[in-house]
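Hi support team,

I'm opening this ticket because the web form for multi-chain structure prediction keeps timing out on my end. I have pasted the exact lines I submitted so you can reproduce it. The total is 317 residues across two entries, so I didn't expect it to be a heavy job. Is there a limit I'm missing, or should I split the entries? Thanks in advance, R.K.
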Amino acid sequence: MKRSREISVAIAIAGLAGVLAVAAPGYFARENLIDLFLANIPCSLSHWA
Amino acid sequence: MTLVILTGQIDISVGSMFAICSVAAGVLAKSGLPSPAAAIAACLVGAILGSINGALVAYAGIPSIVVTLAGMVVLRDALRWQTQGAWVQDLPSNFQWLGVSQSVYPVMAFLAVALLAVVFAWGLRSISAGRSVYATGSSPEAARLAGIDTSMVTFSVFVISGVLTGLAAVLNSVRFNQIPSNTGLGLEMKVIAAVIVGGAAITGGVGTIVGTVLGTILLGAIGPALTFLGASPYWERAIQGAIILAAVVIDAARISSEKHARTAGIRA
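Hello R.K., no limit was hit. The queue was backed up. Here is the completed structure from your submission:
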């Protein structure tokens, strides 16, 4: 099926988010999400090309 | 890296290129160059390094794994020799956060990353240059017979990879007031893992930017998630490895079942 891998990864992300929402809601604090994003910038940009 | 892998190549020198671009941006900013000029210069350094890789792979016909493995070692050790392991310190205040406030910078960086993702995703699907990348990765010979300059496509993706590595180096460096000379150590593995988990085939021709974005989110979220869940962070790499292995096994099983279905269809 087309896009099957993307769907699998999206489901894995949703599952992880679900577990974190129940067990560690602090993960979704604005500061943590910003920090997470900034820490992953090198990976984010380097992999486009 | 997605474009490089889509053409059936690999670039394991991105971590070393990232370190050189970071140090170059810091040194130039420290010498009095305005932040935007230092950022452009870092991207230019990335483009030059990428073009060397690209020329050796596309025109000299040397396998990309050999070229970029050599590049990884040469660039990392050349930087170590040049800096003697010293960090670039006392960066000017206008370099930090690219001269904007700390609260505005994440928004700016997010917009830049999102815009690039949209442009590359659209370009790969909708313009002939993007389709040429898939064609080159799927079957270089067929692509060449169809009139595609596969050498130019391969060269170009390495140059683009270099430019984006330079940009990534700048966006990362401006977060701190010093730049370690060993920055970006192991970056290549993170990047390759994100692309593979996102569904790109290491043999080329298959993969999307959307998949790579999802792969990055998944692998980037796991480490901090383990900390929040009270698990040992030492498990991070093991879990990342297990995810990559699972992704590859699922892919192999899917391809095998598709082949079986096709064979059964032909027999029927």
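A quick check on our side: Residues 4-23 of chain A form the longest helix (20 residues). Let us know if the file doesn't open in your viewer.
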